[in-house]
Amino acid sequence: MTVLSARGLSKAFGPQTLFADATLAIQERDRVGLLGINGAGKSTFLRVLAGLEPADDGVIERKRGASVRYLAQEPKLPSERTPRELVEEGLHEWHAASAAYAAATQRIAAGEGGTELLAEQARLADAIEGLGGWEQGHRAADMLLRLGVRDIDRPVGSMSGGEQRRIALAKLLVAEPELAILDEPTNHLDVDTIEYLEEYLCEHFHGSLLVVTHDRYVLDAVCTRVFELEHGMLAQYSGDYSDYLEQKAEQLAHAERHEQNRLNRLRRERAWLLRGAKARTTKQKARIKRAEALMAIEAPKANARAELRGLEAGATQTGKTILELHDVALDAAHGPGRAPRHDRTERCR
Question: Among positive and negative, which fits the CA dihedral 152, 156, 158, 163?
Fold first, then answer.
């Protein structure tokens, strides 16, 4: 069943078109990676699909009652709340039932209510059990710890931007939406935490997934389909990141062969024109028009192959600086004895 579909989506900022006439459908249990060079409009595309930003044109439809949650690169969290409180809110019904149960218990302790309030307390207790039991509160705390948030009762406003991203990610995961839209979820995560996130998305998360990440190993481990935003157009590929690379390489090779054939035909027609062909017959006029049409065809983008090489390397170079490090340290416990991540071959299907 389709969780979210879009038809004819377009978005532009001034003269720059980020995407035009984009059409897609995300099915239940789909695991989709969204690729594109920096500045291609990936984050804007995610916000449009999440309903946080309007498209200039097109239609987005969701399955009735489907929950869609979005992880921004820089989430905004209330500074006075604690990580535990925020993540427990992700358990919507459980959190509401627990809060109501606590309020009823306080009233009973104060001598209020009588038998009706006792019955309400019992009903709320049954509801909590039906929503996963009292251990759901421990699940929220466990998710925070798994994602590297240690002080879960400290106000969020005193925490770093990286910690706040982890809190927002934990809140989304425990909420278990039918569609999770994640914008660079591995930013600020260490290798162990990224591996836990991969495992959780593969084995425990039952919703659909649309993710933007520069981590090709996450794409290979988690995704079963790939979308690519390139020059304002949305292309779709089956399989994981490695499958995408093979399909993209073949696509580029086909385009190069087609362009070479066009250039060969163009050279022949141009030589014929330079010999002084006279457009006296219908046949000669048609040939001249074909030659003019060949010359008018726009060649494929010259940087397409370079963009693919950048993706194969795991990122696209967009400036002169390749790597910049500050205050670097090495923890011996995670040093040379650790197996490199690219040795892992697990897949999520």
Answer: positive
Do 259 and 300 form a contact (C-beta atoms < 8 A)? yes
- Residue among 332, 336, 262 at smallest CA distance from 300: 262
pTM given for the model: 0.71
Residue 7's Cβ-side half-sphere holds a number of Cα atoms within 13 Å equal to 3
Q: Angle at CA 342, nearest 5°, toward 340 and 344? A: 95
Q: Which CATH number is 185's domain given?
A: 3.40.50.300
Phi and psi (nearest 5°) for 149? -100, 110
Distance linking the first and last C-alpha atoms of the chain: 17
- Nearest partner of 39 among 212, 165, 210, 187, judged by Cα: 212
Distance CA 272, CA 276 (A): 7
pLDDT at residue number 315: 46
pLDDT tens-place string over residues 138-172: 888 899 999 999 999 999 999 999 999 999 999 99
CA distances, 304 to each of 32, 253, 316 (Å): 22, 11, 12
Residue with tokens 């292309």: 235
> In this structure, what token pair is assigned to residue 206?
């039952």
Whether residue 258 is predicted with pLDDT greater than 70 in this model: the reply is yes
Among the candidates 287, 307, 327, a domain finishes at 307
- Could you tell me the sign of the dihedral formed by the alpha carbons of 162, 163, 169, 173, in that order? positive
Q: How many CA atoms lie within 13 A of 147 on its CB side?
A: 31
The per-residue pLDDT for 342 is: 47
Tell whether 185 is covered by a domain.
yes
Residue in this structure with the two tokens 């205050």, named with its chain if needed = 327
- Examine the pLDDT at 317 and tell me if it is beyond 70: no
Determine how many CB atoms are found less than 10 A away from the CB of residue 163. 21
DSSP bridge pairs for 238 = 225
Q: Which residues span the domain enclosing 209?
A: 1-67+177-239
Q: Which of 100, 84, 182 has the alpha carbon at shortest distance from 136? A: 84
